[in-house]
Amino acid sequence: MKNPSSSLPPLFKGIALFTPGGDLIYCIDPSKKNRWHLNLCAVLQEWLGLIEPPHFLVPCYTATVDRWLDPYTGQVQTSAIASASVLRYQALLNAIFEIEDLTWAIAPWSEELCHPMVLATYRQQFPQLWENHELIVRLESSADEGSIHPPNLSPKLRFTLSEQTPTQGYVLRLFVSGHTGATERTLKTLHQLLEESLGYPYTLKVIDVSKHPEQAEQAHVSATPTLVKMWPLPVRRIVGNLEDQDKILNLLGCLNS
């Protein structure tokens, strides 16, 4: 996997998509294609378990940087615009795109399109987008236009490239029904297995379907306990018996099929 802080190509287009909660997914594309916003929305859907791609985030939570060669002067030029709602992340944007002390211009989007009251109407349908998961995700491209690579993850960026420590990681969700003795035993066993078997960091979110039935419905969970691997793709799940450790390790890709 590539390191997000590695040297960038001399000419590129960078596209960043934020969530209202402050998570970030972005790409760096030397070929300057125009399809990246759709890919970023699709990965957010998979990553956060959304019911559909959050296209409404475009353009209100986007930022774009373009590094191009001026045909008249022969000099490399850089232009950058960002939605008003994400201008506060300028230091972060300058870090991931390796552009020092660049002042981002406010994108000329319609105020009505990005009005906070309009965007807030999506909150009930997409609550995950208003949560902060401390994610900074780079989407990688390949020679195959239709393919994407799993993103690199880093802890919450401290605004300096030298402090980033990108890692590969797992995102897991465990759907349970109430905090019973059986639930506690399942959590203890699963936690021990993950600590002993995974070579990468992981996030395990426990969701009580009795308190959050809407999340169970969005994830298509009809029985508990259900363990869902949200990342790396593809999304996979185990329903019912979580005592079979080999089955869980196979779900996580720790065992050969």
Would you count the extended β strands for me? 11
End-to-end gap: 23 Å
Q: What coarse outline follows from CA principal-axis ratios? A: elongated
Give the low-pLDDT segments: 1-6, 142-167
Give the ordered list of helices and strands. EEHEEHEHEEEHEHEEH
Q: What proportion of the residues form beta strands (DSSP E)?
A: 25-35%
Main beta-sheet strand count, sense and barrel state: 7 strands, mixed
Q: Quaternary arrangement of the chains shown?
A: single chain
Classification by helices and strands: alpha/beta
Q: Tally the helices: what do you get? A: 6
Based on CA atoms alone, the radius of gyration comes out at 20 Å
Can you give the helix content as a percent range?
10-25%
Q: Taking strands numbered 1, 2, ... along the chain, how are they ordered across the largest sheet?
A: 5-4-3-1-2-6-7
For the residues shown, what is the average pLDDT? 77
Task: Provide structural commentary.
With 257 residues, the chain is of the alpha/beta class. The protein contains six helices and eleven strands. The protein has helices at 36-48, 90-96, 116-120, 181-197, 213-218, 245-252; strands at 12-18, 24-29, 62-69, 76-82, 105-106, 136-141, 148-154, 170-176, 202-208, 226-231, 236-239. 28% of the residues are buried. Residues 1-6 and 142-167 have low confidence and may be disordered. Residues 173-254 form the KaiB domain.
Question: Could you write a compact summary of the structure shown?
Answer:
InterPro entries: KaiB-like, KaiB_domain, Thioredoxin-like_sf. The chain is α/β, with parallel strands linked by helices and 257 residues long.
